[in-house]
Amino acid sequence: GIGLDIRIPIGAMFALIGLALAGYGWMTSGVNINLWWGLAMTLFGGALLAPALLKRA
Amino acid sequence: MTDVRLAWIDYVLMAIYFAFVIGIGVALKRFMRSSADYFLSGRAIPAWVAGLAFISANLGAQEVIGMGASGAKYGIATSHFYWIGAIPAMVFVGVFMMPFYYGSRARSVPEYLKLRFDEKTRALNAISFAVMTVFSSGVSLYAMGKLFKLLLGWDEDASMLAAAGIVLAYIFLGGLTSAIYNEVLQFFLIVFGFLPLVLLGLKDVGGWAGLQARLTTRALEQGYAPTAYTQSWAFMDEATRNPVGVEWFGLAMGLGFVLSFGYWCTDFLVVQRAMAADSMTAARRAPLIAAIPKMLFPFLVILPGMLALTVEPRRASAPPGVVAASVGIVPPKIADAGEIIRDTNGRPVIDYDLATPAMLAHYLPSGLLGLGLTALLASFMSGMAGNVTAFNTVWTYDIYQSYFKRDASDTHYLWMGRAATIGGIALSVATAYVAAAFNNIMDVLQLVFAFVNAPLFATFLLGMFWKRATGHGAFWGLVAGTLAAALHHGVSLPEGAVVGVKGGFLGVVLPPYRSELAQTFWTAIVAWTVCFVVTIAVSLATRPRPDEELGGLVYALTPKPAEDVGFWRRPATLAVVVLTATLVLNLIFF
Questions:
Q1: Residue A3: alpha-carbon gap to chain centroid
Q2: Which of B46, B324, B330, B424 shows the smallest number of beta carbons within 10 Å?
Q3: Segment B148-196, tens digit of pLDDT
Q4: Are B94 and B55 in contact (CB under 8 A)?
Q5: Most A CBs within 10 Å: which of B188, B278, B359, B364, as the mutation test of the A interface?
Q6: Cross-chain CB nearest to B44 (options A1, A12, A13)
Q7: What element of type H or E holds B567?
Q8: What whole-number distance in Å separates Cα of residue B183 and Cα of residue B187?
């Protein structure tokens, strides 16, 4: 794009939201879409973020 | 509906989203060195990013909430808005029209009209478009405030001003690039936020077969054939046999040709995203890449509405009268005084706009509920941001630079772009308050804009593919088409509607249409045809521009774009794949 690799903010946001969601799912597991969907979002975020960060390194 | 309660995790997810949205604007601010950076993203956006922004700019609340509502109302036939009402037009703009928009180096769609026709045609399009974008943005803001008050009890003023403030911050800082990056982010967020609804809903009702069985009952109750809600084409031979109330010709010509090509091929709001691409090939591929998720979107936004009709309410959180009047989990409309609104036959009027929000409340626990509501907020904000970025570009280039300050420095236009962003947001907020106070005025304005939009594609089609078309022809064709739309609407009325905004204000001459959609489609057909004929007639009576002035603006006088990518990445190849897949989807749900 114009100077910022778009995969970095999007990957970071999805990884962070995914971790928060999965963590909450784990916390509430004994009280589980939060856990599984959170993990899926973390994986998606990581898949975007990792190659972008490797490219910068 | 206000029994939706949020936990701390829901607020945390919203806060993360807001932080990233504004963070993108802050990160991009230092790259905004010229007006081209601010308004056109420096023409540096890769094809896949431009493509996802192309679809996401259109992914406002009207899509997410409105298509869910239509799914509940019309069933799978709502997919016509995608498989015939979007994909063919997206393919057409990518393959045939982007070479002119991008190759002419026009900075906006109105500027293309100036290059191809003349100043008065550009002015007509630029001014009507600028007013329309601010209006759409304001109405979207008002709808957001109203929905979140209903769902969560949030203060309308606070939620409207907060959303407007966030959109203002990231566009003011990062211009079109910030809007595009956030639109891509919002696209993925909407997919992740709404997909669980579809998966859980289908699991709950026993898959597609279970949904079909449950909708059979609904179809028979409404007097249709058993599969009227789960087949998209089978009952289109007559308007009376399908829930949409439209026959195949009105659908194919009105929606599939006039309205859809008029929107996807000429609306600067979406075309601007492709014009920001980093090469001609990328600009042509952007709408084609966008068409791939677009053809799958019915499963994401229409299915929740269909499911909402068939799901059993789990507990009576609403008053017993409301629960009894609901269809599935879709509640009836409630008047301000608290009583259920009923039609002339005494039956409750169902509030289809609440189908998707009701699904969110029904299936999502705290955590995922926060994600779903954030996705809903994202859809409102991306629709608003798309309108504001289109507005600030058209205002600065097509109105301010053309009529107020022609030869200022580039830094001045960059400053004006930021000022226009503030002005656009302020006008949107003002429009939202007008909408809250005078709902009927908004209905009238929406109608006027529909009249203005209906004939547009005829002007562009003739401009790009007939070198004999003249500026006078284009201008008077547009004026005549708009008047024809108003005239047709004024002498027609849908069944059961009262004379007024719904039509008939000039005296009902035509037989009543089966539905409002049928009337809308035929109004568009009339407007387009009149514009097409008048443009040709006036053009033949006026002097055309010499061929040497039309290079890059007209098909016959423009060299074919070079194919600088491999066979599988060429626009034509992608177009064939997209159209074939769309045909298959139409056949599966025929």
A1: 22
A2: B324
A3: 888 889 898 999 999 999 999 999 999 999 999 999 998 999 999 989 9
A4: no
A5: B188
A6: A1
A7: none
A8: 6
